[in-house]
Every structure is written in structure tokens, then in C-alpha cells.
## 1
Amino acid sequence: MHANKYAEPVTALGLMSGTSLDGVDIALIETDGHAVQRFGPVGERPFTLQERDLLRGALADAQTLTDRHARPGRLAEAEAMITDAYAETIRDFLAGRENEPVAVVGVHGQTVLHRPKDRLTVQLIDADALARRCGLTVVHDLRGADVAAGGQGAPLVPVFHQALARAAGLEPPVAVVNVGGVANVTWIGESDALMAFDTGPGNALLDDWVYRHTGEPMDRDGALAASGAVDERALAALEAGLSDYLAQQPPKSLDRLDLSTGEALEGLSLEDGAATLSSFTARCVASARDHLPEAPKSWIVCGGGARNPELLRALTDALPGDLTTADALGWRGDFIEAQAFAFLAARSLQGMPITFPGTTGVPRPLTGGSVTQPERAA
């Protein structure tokens, strides 16, 4: 715990649905926007197969968007589904927890398009409807102001990673690797120095490969990859296809649909493809070292990828220094992003910055988020 020289702590809920399309995570924390005074309970609401299919369709329909508020094709249906899922998750989570006086809900929504070079980022969530249904203040659109100011709009979680590392007393420099659909790294140096960027694929390509061949949403426990072999020719082709991005200096970020296997995996078995894609994710994370100010003394892995033993093995082989998981440090690795959106909502309410030149390339530390009060929701 840290002495609170900021505002009084508030109880905040955070909700996150990421590019892995696996479901909605929810977490409760008490925070002053600088440190976390208390970590509360967490929960999840998985998407059904039909909901995942709808989101995949919305991702495809979003590729022609030029107006971040337009909802053509399946986007309107997907936004209604996401809003319903968030509202149900909040209702079920708070049932029996009337003693938790929630002050604010921070929501991410579902990203369907991220084109910062065009100053365009689109997350599906009807914040007015959500505020009305849950009767709580909702902070949303946490990427919009950053992108409008010329930033990448991603990653958003580094300032929370910084708070976690500070509270844990970790010796800098430290790198936190979040392996969601897209993977990103947060580098934390002396005096809370921050750098962050997307490293390349996380689980997205692997999930898509497994879904296409089996109908299952993921390689559970890395079992498929563990029984396959890395195809070096295919791996080289995958790296060549992303070489321009990997060489690009930060700040930088990726859209999920920027990632493609092309024809690199043609002819590979399910298992060999899974092994090759796991290695590809690890290689991309390892290549991030070339852009960091100083080599990290330790690497902390969180997100869905931290539950994949084969991916962890590949990361251990690819990265020098100590590697551990967020859960091994006592963090809730699967729920860090949900906790982060609660944290960011508290910072937003106080006008504190949530993005920084070293994390998104925004010209100056910038606050963000739109606030919707339940009584003012249209």
C-alpha cells in the first residue's frame, strides 16, 4: 500500500472484452488512481459460439468504416449483444454484493477496427444503455482522445502495470507481456519510466487456426502445439510477412486484422501449425527487445497466453532473464485488463493522464474517456 496523496479512493468496476473474442471479464478494485488500495472479486462471462461468430462477422463488416459512430451490417447487432453481455455481467456480479458501493464502471467495449494512422478506432458498446441498465456512472471510449490527438490509442494498460510493479517492489527494469489476441509489452524503468507497444500476434492467429480446423475456440493448455513441431520454413514466412512492423520503432500498435498467416502454413498439420504459431508469437515478443531502452531483469507474462504451457515454454526459450507469470506474483493474470479499466476509469474521473508519449506516442500525457451518468443517459 502507498500513502494516498491523491483523491479519496473509490470502488470501481472494470469490464474488458478483448481481441481473443473469448468473453467479458469483470473485476472490482478500490483505487485512488495512483495505487490500488484493495483488490476485490473477479468474474467472467464467456461468449457463446454464436456470439463469437457474430463478432467475427462484425470484424469483417468494420473494415470499410470511415465513421467511428456508424454501425452498418452486423455491427449494430453486435453492439447490442456486447451491451447486453456487459449489463448481464454487471448484474450477476453485483448480485448479493449490495455492500459494495460502486462509484464508477470503466468499460472497454469490443474493438472491431483500430486504424490510428487514420485517427480511427472503433469499440462497440452503447454506454447510454449500459448506464441506464446498471444505474451506475460509466466511463467509456478510453482510446478516442488519444487517437484524435495523434496517438496510437494502444496499449492502454501500461499505467496500471506500472502501479502493480511499484506495489510489488520489483527491481527495474521490468517488462510485462500481455498475451491477448494481440500481444503487447510494457517496459518499466527507473523512476517509473514507461515504454509500451504491441509486439505482434498473441493468441489471435493460433485461435483462428484452431477454430478453422476444429471449431474449438483455442488450443487448450497448448496441447496441440505440444504435440506438433515448428516448421522453420513457415516460421520464416510468417516473420517476413510482419517484418516491416517488427522493425518499426515504437510507438506502434496493431489491429487484430493486421495479422494474417497468408499461405505460410499451407500444407501443415493442425499440430505443426499450432506449434509454429506459438513460436511465432514468442519470436515477435523477443524481437521487442531491440526497441527497449534497457534489457529487462525480469519478464512477467499475463493474459490468456499465460495459461498456455507451450507458449510459456516458447517465451522462456526466446527471452533472456527471469520469466514468471502474473499469477506467480499474486496478481490475477487473467483479469489484469478488467482491473486496469477500473483503474483507468478512476483516473479519468480525476482528470489524471491515462496515456503517455512513451506508451502511445501522444504528444503529452493525456487523460481520456467519456463519462455517462445514468440519469443523463438518453
Note: The first strand starts at residue 10 and ends at 16.
## 2
Amino acid sequence: MGKRLFDIAASALGLLLLAPLLLLAALWVKLDSPGPALFRQTRVGRFGVPFTIHKFRTMRVEPGAAITVGADPRITRSGALLRASKLDELPQLWDVLRGAMSLVGPRPELPRYVAMYPADLREIVLSVRPGITDPASLSFRDESELLAKAADPEREYVEVIMPMKLRLAGDYVRSASLVGDIRLIMATLRAIR
């Protein structure tokens, strides 16, 4: 209950204080390339329930791979800065406020990747709300660059990166606390400066 109250208060305050920045970012995305300001995608949430995640759109609206690798040519000018600063994640404060996500928790995955989770880790990782940040987000902040170095980025993600992220997510869930969450939020803010 304390975690949810903290999420509600912090996300509402964040949305209020960051409203001018959110509006400017949305306008920049719209002016930079055709398409909506927000990117919406189905992810898997708590207890395996699908939900729609919101981010600022950082890529041109065209078909492509599910994962972003290195300097993906679909990334827009505004998108490159929003991704580098992690400002593209700010609309997820709305997802936190509405209860689909938490500020801290395992990052939500696409359904096709969740289908590959080992049963024991799946149960643990999906027992909590997914978050905007978690230990795996900090450890794999340069995930796109790591994938760019791989001969087969999709295979590298599925066989190497995803299992490591799942282990970190499982460890987080087993030892989660409000104090630990605040530490992770502070570490995330330091990492994006």
C-alpha cells in the first residue's frame, strides 16, 4: 500500500511539475516528423495482464524490428535526444498514475518475449507492477549499443541480455522495499544527467 501511495503522489507531482517540458517535447516530436507525439505499444503487466505503455515517439512511423539497434535509421532528430536523455520515458508517469505501472519495478516486455520467460522467473517478475526503472535499466542503459555489436541482435537479446535482465528483475522483486525504490530512483536520476 505504501508503494502505491508513493507512486500516485510522485507521478502526479511529476506530471504537474513537468507539464511544460512534456508539452514542449510533444510539440518537438510532432514538428520533427509526421505522426503522433506519443508511441503506444502493448506490454505485459502485473499478473500477465496486457496494458498500453506510453512514450514519446522517437522513430519515424514505419515498420521495423521490435528492438532498436545502435544508430537505427528510423530514429528521428528529436528522438535521438529524447532517447539519450531518457525523456522519452516521461509519459509513463501517466501509466504509473493510472495503476498500470510503478515508478520502480521490472521493465515491461513485449508479449512475445514474455512467452519465452522461464516459468519460475515469469511468476516472480509478473507478480508486481512493471516499472519505469529497475536495476536492469541501470545495468543495461547502453543496451542498444550492445546489440549493435552483435552479429544477430535479436538472438543476442533473447539468449544473453534478456536472461540477465530477468535475473536482476527477480532479485529486485525478492528484496523490494520503499527505501530501496527511492535509492533506485535517485540512481536513475544521477545516471541520466
Note: Strands lie at 38-44, 50-56, 102-104, 131-133.
## 3
Amino acid sequence: MLYTISANMEGWELFVNSLLPMISGAIKYTIPLTLISFVLGLLVALLTAMMRLSKSALIQAPAVIYVSAIRGTPLLVQLFIIFYGLPSLGLTIDPFPSAIIAFTLNVGAYASEIIRASILSISKGQWEAAFTIGMTKTTALKRIILPQAARVSVPPLSNSFISLVKDTSLASLILVAELFRKAQEIAARTYDFLLLYIEAALIYWVICFILSLAQTALEKRFDRYVAK
């Protein structure tokens, strides 16, 4: 769908007419990018956390290097390496998949430390109790440890999810037509940068506020199962 916004609009009219393109960008790209990257990132995080908890140095090493590399470099640089750098090696990836790869790897590294810390926070007595009734280590992990660790990790993982919504604005720099990219395109035609960037910020704020309410409700739900 094409949106034509004239450069000679008044402030309020411009605000109203630019709202639909920005919301469209959020629905088509920002939200899907956030959801896909976060789900894939959690899978990467769980695998990485399990590798970090392994007693084998050979298994630990790749996970340690991956987490260190991702946490030690800016997300923007990671995006640029994937989208602008890989073509020099003959591997060209479209903007949206490039953003998904970059955000997934970034989420995976940070979330893996949250999951690892959550697992380590579960007392050894839980493991011993599971072994006492004949559970294997894998079964104990699935049925006893991970469910408890999941409850512990909900607040920090929820914060990571909300942060990811804001981080998706960086995808505008590799031509993904998400919310902020739409604001940039309209601003380039109207030259009213302040108004449009404030409008984009308000939309991000509304999305994050709604997610914060959902986070609070989720935490209260998990609190029901915590012994007082």
C-alpha cells in the first residue's frame, strides 16, 4: 500500500496522516521481527545455557566464545556484518532475514545467561530429590529444574523482550521498513523531523507500556505458585 504525505502539511494534520504508515510498519515488521527473533533467540539461549553448564570444556568453549563475542560487540555492528559484510563472501541475505539473524543471535547470547543463572539458582536439593525417586538427569531437568527456572527467569526475560521491541529500530539502517524506517521516510519528504520522531517514540512507548502490563500480569500469575 502506498502512502502519499505532502511536504506542506500542518503539524497536527501531518501527525494524524503519518500515524497509519507508522502503525502499519509496526504491524508488518516491528512486531513480527520482535516475536520471531525472541522465540528463536530463546531456543538458542536454552541450547547455549546447557552447553555452558556442561562439565566438558570442549562443549563449553563454543558457547563461551559465542556469548562473549555477541555481548562484547554492538548490535548495530552485528547487523552491518550480516547485511553489508557477508555479501563480500558471496552470501547475500535480504534485509528482514538479516535482521532476524542478528536479533536472534543477540537475544540468544543475553538470554542464555539469564537461563543459566536461573537454573543455577535452583537448590541442589531439588536435583537430589529427583535422583532419589529414580529420575535421570535429563528427566529431572525437564520436569523439576526447568519449570522452576522458568518462573525465576520470567522478569528478566520479559525485560529483554521489551528491550528488543526498541532495538528493532536499528533494522531501519539495513532498509527494513519497520516503524522507525517509516518515520524516517516521511520526515525526509516533509522535513519535520522533530514531530515525526516524537510520534515514533510515542508509538514505541505505547507498545512497551502494553507489554509492561502483560509482564506484570504474568509475574503475578507465577507468584501464585511461590510458597509464602
Note: Residues 49 and 112 are 5 Å apart (CA to CA).
## 4
Amino acid sequence: MLFTLEPSSGAPRTIDFTLETLIVAGWTGRDRAAMEAHIEELEALGIKRPKSLPVYYRCSNTCVTQRRAIQVPGAESSGEVEFLFYRGLADGSDGMDGELWVGVGSDHTERAVEALGVTISKQMCDKPVSPMLWRFADIENHWDQLVLRSHAVIDGERVLYQEGAVTAMIHPMELIAGYDRDFCGGANGGGLPEQSAMFGGTFAAIGGIRPADRFEMELEDPVLGRSLKHAYDIEVLPVEG
């Protein structure tokens, strides 16, 4: 998969990144009381309580796509904007220099089967991601000033779907360290495994979760005056049984 690496200074470069492991972190909010209240709401609807906070779902690495359109089974899926982190080979032979790189993506999820199994619902849909990445070291000192935003085209109208500061979610270093501790036995020194990517979670949709014909996402850095953006159309496939 080709990515353009854009440092805060110097020329961008294109690399061919091989993704081996995809992690989709959920229930990553910093406000635990608010999360607990939402968990109880979902339990009343028949959706099981997550086994941990946060929870780390594994999805196939083939779910990640840079295509401008995806196909979904039925009309009950929806997108959600998230930051995500990538780590390449530690020896830098893939051009990523073993560093952390940041992108923006959509954890598109099939809502109709979410009550049956969250992991299954996430696996059913492609995960569109931006083709451009930023070096985390360039934004680490002002990370809390970054903003996530999404728009959706619903019934022909473009609406603001989500917007908020990344501070709504657990700091990414804490999130990544938790995965390394609980699932890798600390083998990565608190970092991501090589050739992996991790989605960082999201916040509530304005007006509630609902399907759309098009989804647009953005990670804005107001300090350096730049944004990572990506958009995709959603084609609904018929359900015949």
C-alpha cells in the first residue's frame, strides 16, 4: 500500500508499506463515567458489555483501503472518523524509519450485526484511510490541540457528523502501551509491533449514528496549519437472504 509521508519540514516522500496487523481500539474515551453510562444504555439494547476498557479488536489487514468508494452488505453500516497510527520496520528498510506515523481513517462498521458481535460487525466492512501520513514526532508536543471532524452526505445533504478534540480519547501512547502490555507481553517496549496499524477510537455522532451515501473525514492540526483528509462513497449491496 502506497503512502505519502509528509514531515513538518522537508519534501514528502512515497513509500510502499506492508500492513501485517490491524488493531481497532474501542471504548477509548478519557471520561470513564460517561463511557459507563453509555455501556449501560447499550446493554439495555442487547449489546454486550465490552470485556475491557479500552478493548482491542483485531481485524483482517485486508480491510484497510485507500479507495474512494466501498461496497457494504445492506443499508445499516456507517463510518466514524478516527486517528490511526502506523509503524513500519525498525530497520527503516521500508522508508518509515521505524517511527510512528499518523493518519486519519474511518472505522466503517456494519451496525445491523453489532449486537451479535462487535468484532464481526467491524470485520464486515472496509476501513478507508488517508494516503498521506504525518510523523508523530512532529506533532507530539501539541497533540492535544488536534481536531477530528467528519461530514456525511445523507439524503443528498452534506451535514457535520462528528467534531471534537483528540483529547476525548485516551492519549495514543497510553493506548498503544496497553496493547503491547496485554497482547504482546511488552515485546515492543510499549510501542506498536512492526508493520502494524491501530485505530484510536472516536466520539458520538451529531444527531446519532446513521448510514450515509458519502463520508468525509479530517484530522486538523491548527498549530502547523494543515489537515489530513480523505473521503469515500458507500455503495449498498442488496441483501437476498
Note: Residues 2-237 form a domain with the Fumarylacetoacetate hydrolase; domain 2 fold (CATH 3.90.850.10).
